[in-house]
Amino acid sequence: MSSNGRKTREMILDRIRVANGDGPATTFAPSPNAEWESLPREYDRRGALDAEARTALFAERMADYNAAVYYSDEDGLRATIADVLHERGKRTLVVPHGFPQEWLTEHVHVINESEFDSASVEDILNVITTCTVAIAATGTVVLQHGAGEGARRLSLLPDYHLCVVRESQIVETVPEVMDVVRVNATRPTTTISGPSATADIEMTRIKGVHGPRFLDVVIVR
Amino acid sequence: MTVRVGHAAEAAKFPIIANTLVDDSQIRKNVRHATDVIQNKRANVVAEQRDWQELRLSASKIKEHTLKYLDRYLEQFETACTRAGGQVHWATDADEANKIILELMQSAMAKHGWAREVIKVKTMTSDEINLNAALEAAGIRPHETDLADMIIQLGDDKPSHIVVPALHKNRTQVREIFSRKMDLPELGDKPQDLTDAARHYLREKFLNVKVGFSGANFLVAETGSVCVVESEGNGRMCLTMPEMLITVAGIEKIIPAAQDLEVFLQLLPRSATGERMNPYNTIWTGVHEGDGPREFHVVLLDNGRTNILADKESRQTLHCIRCGACLNACPVYSRTGGHAYGSIYAGPIGAILTPQLQSMKHSQSLPYASSLCGACYEVCPVRINIPDVLLHLRSKVVERQQDMLAGGANFEGLAMKMAAFAFARPTIYRWGQKFARVAQRLLVRKGYIRWLPGMLGGWTAVRDLKALPQEPFREWWAKREVEKTKAATSV
A55 and A34 in one domain? Predict the structure, then answer.
């Protein structure tokens, strides 16, 4: 920061201190942490549903925002993914680093994450990812872009996103999801609730603007 | 320091602009439709959230706490963001912010030979500082990428709502703008057609423009993270595709910890668009190796916010998370639309925010642009008591006017003093009533006064005044007491 910049910074901080009726900053000032800890948080920090009801709610809320939901068990996952792709007519698929290869059949043409930036637009029309955690109450999947989830642009540029969600990753409420996200708080984090959308023209909800126009979710029980 | 809020300082008074807008039936229809739809959606998803009031209370307390320690939290944010590879800048006003942003862009563009273009995510703060005009003057082309902002930019228009800035335009009007500016004579007018046109138009920009620009919904002090809330994916594009990203944020956008996001990410989407969750939230921290921009800057903006902080009775204005719920609920806004407020911040929140940012020197008519019905307070997710602040600001406007008129003739002040004198003395009050009853005779038509002379005409210009009754309550009561006593004695 330039010396000019430092002066501006001090000026703004001083104006805040004066506005708050504080004296100049001292190293002995009490930390705000204790006060933050005691702020009222009477809202629901935990959900009340059992696993089955939670999964059902997640599927219902996902569908509410135009995402298609499929179910599978661990053994049948490879077949389920193949069926979904077949049904959608998808033959090429972008696959992130660390995505389990055994979930993919030889019938799909795989573009690995490392080839993504040089691949043609036609080749990156479809992407498959896992997720970090999901929220039932809002119908949301959360990606922190680690192994299996890909860098942020992977799940953004394609037109079609297929996301694999394990039942154990579904939590009921937003506070529960933040407990998971906070473990790796400084990782890039994207929450996705349905396909991209807008209601800017006459409040008519249009699915698919700049992000993927289609979002499918496979829930693994 | 010169605080600027868009072009609010030059705008005409609210009643003057409003007067012309209420006669525009197309705008009234468009605004009414949009606010009705959002309000209904909001009501449904808020009713579904059982702990809504508890969330509101927590949000309000978190904001109150943050403002009390704002200097510490800003420093904490700066340290954490810098540690993660971001660069933090400070700006006292609009010009300073624009200067910092321009210098950053110009030096990067010159160094790397990038095209002089920037892709922008919707940000009210950028409108507040008139960034686009500053960019264009320096030969840098800003591309607004939010659909509504595109409609505004291409149509050479002004935003009229915090969340849905083009809600005053209907599909036919949007089609006209797009087909002209994008050279698409065959374009249809279905919202799907118009959205597809925007997708096509912007895709090439997202893939090629090297500089991205955004605002911020939240800055997290604990981690140095920034959170942007959006729907279309244009935000994700601008935040991840360019080589360089610059974010401008008002200093009040800070929250202490990542955990606090759990409160605001429940309140904001339900209040703003009536969704349980908006399609996309992006949270990032500094620079991420191999993912997104390689250079990241945050400009922390004061621009009058510390003035508001210094006023204990109205500092709650800084709690605002820009959801726009108060606009949709406001009976005044739904009839005039946003342009009447002469500021990029319209509606009830604009009526308190705009004049305060400008130290009450401009936009003095805005605190009066309200019926004080309280609907805004009821829907506010962070419990800003807007009616209270409006009243407080009205008294400040009056004080200012009195200061300015000190020594001169102040008819309103004189009239108020006379009224206070009469109200405190029953005899004078009674004679005043008798006098007024006689004086009004010439003016009363069918029980109403529709015209008053001189300054009093300001009242009757917009509403009728009920005539004083021939027998006021006090006389009726006195007569009744006399009759009761008579009746009692005659038994």
Answer: no
State the residue range of the domain holding A16.
Answer: 3-38
Among A156-165, A166-175, B10-19, where is mean pLDDT lowest?
A: B10-19
| CB distance B305 to B357 below 8 Å | yes
Regarding pTM above 0.80, the answer is yes
Cross-chain CB nearest to A41 (options B58, B256, B288): B58
Q: What are the structural domains, with CATH classification, of chain B? A: 54-307 (3.40.50.10420), 428-490 (no CATH)
Tens digit of pLDDT for each residue in A79-120?
999 999 999 999 999 999 999 999 999 889 999 999 988 778
ipTM entry: 0.96
Looking at the predicted structure, is the pLDDT value of residue B100 above 70?
A: yes
Domain total of chain A: 2
Strands B225-230 and B218-220: antiparallel
Of the residues B87, B231, B302, B305, the best mutation for testing chain A's interface (the one with the most A CB atoms within 10 Å of its CB) is B231
Contacts of residue B136, Cβ cutoff 8 Å, sequence gap at least 6? B142
In a domain, A141, yes or no: yes
The Cα–Cα gap between A166 and A153 comes to 23
> Which pLDDT band holds residue A28 (cuts at 50, 70, 90)?
low
Q: Is A70 found in the same domain as A31?
A: no
A/B interface, count of CB pairs below 8 Å: 241
Does residue A190 belong to any structural domain of this protein? yes
Are residue A11 and residue A69 in the same domain, yes or no?
Answer: no
- CB contact at 8 A, B275 and A192: no
Confidence of residue A23 (pLDDT cuts 50, 70, 90): low
Residues 129-168 of A with CB under 8 A from B: 135, 137-140, 145, 151-153, 156
pLDDT above 70 covers what percent of chain B? 99
Backbone angles phi, psi at B283, to 5 degrees: -120, 125
A71 lies in some domain: yes
Q: Is residue A148 part of a domain?
A: yes
Question: What residues of chain A lie within 8 A of the CB of B228, using their CB?
Answer: none
